Amino acid sequence: MLRAALPLLGLPLAGAGATEEPTQEPGSPGEPPPGLALFRWQWHEVEAPYLVALWILVASLAKIVFHLSRKVTSLVPESCLLILLGLVLGGIVLAVAKKAEYQLEPGTFFLFLLPPIVLDSGYFMPSRLFFDNLGAILTYAVVGTLWNAFTTGAALWGLQQAGLVAPRVQAGLLDFLLFGSLISAVDPVAVLAVFEEVHVNETLFIIVFGESLLNDAVTVVLYKVCNSFVEMGSANVQATDYLKGVASLFVVSLGGAAVGLVFAFLLALTTRFTKRVRIIEPLLVFLLAYAAYLTAEMASLSAILAVTMCGLGCKKYVEANISHKSRTAVKYTMKTLASCAETIIFMLLGISAVDSSKWAWDSGLVLGTLFFILFFRALGVVLQTWVLNQFRLVPLDKIDQVVMSYGGLRGAVAFALVILLDRTKIPAKDYFVATTIVVVFFTVIVQGLTIKPLVKWLKVKRSEHHKPTLNQELHEHTFDHILAAVEDVVGHHGYHYWRDRWEQFDKKYLSQLLMRRSAYRIRDQIWDVYYRLNIRDAISFVDQGGHVLSSTGLTLPSMPSRNSVAETSVTNLLRESGSGACLDLQVIDTVRSGRDREDAVMHHLLCGGLYKPRYRYKASCSRHFISEDAQERQDKEVFQQNMKRRLESFKSTKHNICFTKSKPRPRKASRKKKDGMANMEATNGKPPRDLGFQDTAAVILTVESEEEEDSDSSETEKEDDEGIIFVARATSEVLQEGKVSGE
């Protein structure tokens, strides 16, 4: 099986070209039986997997070496260094073996190297930003690709008719149109490799990268249609063939998207039932996404579009269903596979350029192609942007247009497509291969090297790597609802109206179908934020008391898992209004930054404005046969009781000092303790003092426990649900109380 896969992986067959000598059966007459061999070299049995592992190891070591010098990687993109490394390795192999080996085969690229990169891009793509700019992305991907393909092909044919291309380049109009269709598409691998290092703003990046993903359908259709026309001959092409070509554009694009959405639905539905087999969750994500890619490829549909829509459509539901460890495994495995595939692609591109037997040079064709792809790309971007700006609320300025024009990079997709051409049908294939290699190297190396200085010189807005604050999220949702309401009032069903309708449909049907019950039973998002702020404050308190407690230790399994607990706490300072006063973590007096101040204000608002249930309900062991309202109240009660159990583990925490657990604690009602603390402060007559962050006085944390709550059920039923209250008292007071009780 491995030997059959060697040609697909671009590796030579063991003993290829050598004549097989007749082997003599052991034990034949006249031959003594072979003795026991102490050592046997069996290279041919492990050649294929060994070479694959060796190339991955070389690629990984190359990335390590490149990033040892920060100056080199800050000036030269990693893709350029990998191509140069591939040229060096290809020259070494050619000098040693006297022939070029280990080429980038189209089967290897399309079936094994491209899917991880596209899946990583689609799965982690910001869906809100993508759909907000979907109109511009589709315009550049469809209209722009058609414009670039036909104008480049026609211009090259005109260049040949003018005598600027050598007569040995035997190609007609259909041949040049076929070449224009494969050389005009923006490559997603090259765009990712270069634009992720430039760090342009999110809108500019999503437009260029979205175009590179969605133009695959147009590229596939144009390539297959033009290739079929060349094989048929221009004289045999009928009018119905042109109509079939136009119809195939919709079939390939919509069919690929439909395949991706079907597999996204299956993936989300499957992960709903993996609660007891968490170990296979990452496997299901990769397996079904790859199945979507292969199914679309098998049906001659857009495989890139299929896996993109699969990752984009399933992420919300899959992230809600799978566990935190599975999400981490999916994230890092996907990033690792994509990085390895990208590294191998650029290395093999450099190695493939060394094989001069596959290409022929013509200066007129090469220079003309370079000029036309740059000129028509810039002209198309300007014309399309002018039309789009008539409808966009935030228009694309001239600087954005310059970066979009200059960022139309070509890569391994064009090289793999030109290698697939049939030399018997297209005599100019070798010239097209040479021109494609030059175009790929020019766009990746020259444009990749100069795009970062260009962005700095033009002062293009850069991306801001920070999560939106709570205030920004609330205002964003508020404006979305207001705009949807305005469109509904005026009777105009625009973008905000349909997005609001989709969110209602998703919440009412899809989320309940594709998410497990503990995930889709969502409380108000304001409640969710309130819970998380309390958890972060508790973590901050424990950290400053001398203990490090991770956020995963305080995660409630029944909480929605779509939004993870933030790593940084809301506030990093302890507040106390006296030696025996109540320390309420919901009160924030001092903050360190503007973002903390904004979260603090929102925390006050949530604490004072949220609805508080009047009665407490016991958590039932059964999760069935409960009304919806009772279930919601039960979840809130379970959350608070779980928090109290966890906080009991550090109830006697001090700064860097902990009391032993063997010391008995008097069982008193927590309400009496709080009243006693207030009376003690009034008796002493001491004004409340502030406990600063640098104060080293020992503090003991007292938390209401579930046992104390059960001891006085009648009193509990009358109390309002006031959340979790932390009580801090000075150590001397607690010790004095212990002595009195001991006497």
Task: Summarize the model shown.
This protein has 28 helices and 3 strands. The protein is mainly alpha-helical and 743 residues long. The longest helix is centred in the middle third of the chain and has 33 residues, at 239-271.
Provide key terms for this protein.
single chain, 743 residues, mainly alpha, Na+/H+ antiporter like fold, 3-stranded antiparallel β-sheet, 28 helices, 3 strands, disordered N terminus, potassium:proton antiporter activity, endosome
Describe this structure in words.
The protein is mainly alpha-helical. Among the domains are: 97-458, Na+/H+ antiporter like fold; 478-537, no CATH class. Helices cover 63% and strands 1% of the residues. The chain contains 28 helices and three strands. The chain has helices at residues 2-5, 43-66, 70-75, 78-97, 106-123, 127-132, 134-161, 173-183, 188-198, 202-232, 239-271, 281-298, 303-321, 324-352, 363-388, 398-406, 412-419, 429-458, 470-490, 495-514, 517-520, 525-544, 594-609, 628-647, 670-684, 706-711, 713-718, 731-742; strands at 582-583, 699-702, 726-730. It has a three-stranded antiparallel β-sheet with strand order 1-3-2. Helix 2 (43-66) packs antiparallel against helix 4 (78-97) and helix 11 (239-271) packs parallel to helix 13 (303-321). It is globular and about 80 Å long. This is Sodium/hydrogen exchanger. Belongs to the monovalent cation:proton antiporter 1 (CPA1) transporter (TC 2.A.36) family. Keywords: Antiport, Cell membrane, Endosome, Ion transport, Membrane, Signal, Sodium, Sodium transport, Transmembrane, Transmembrane helix, Transport. It is found in: Cell membrane; Recycling endosome membrane.
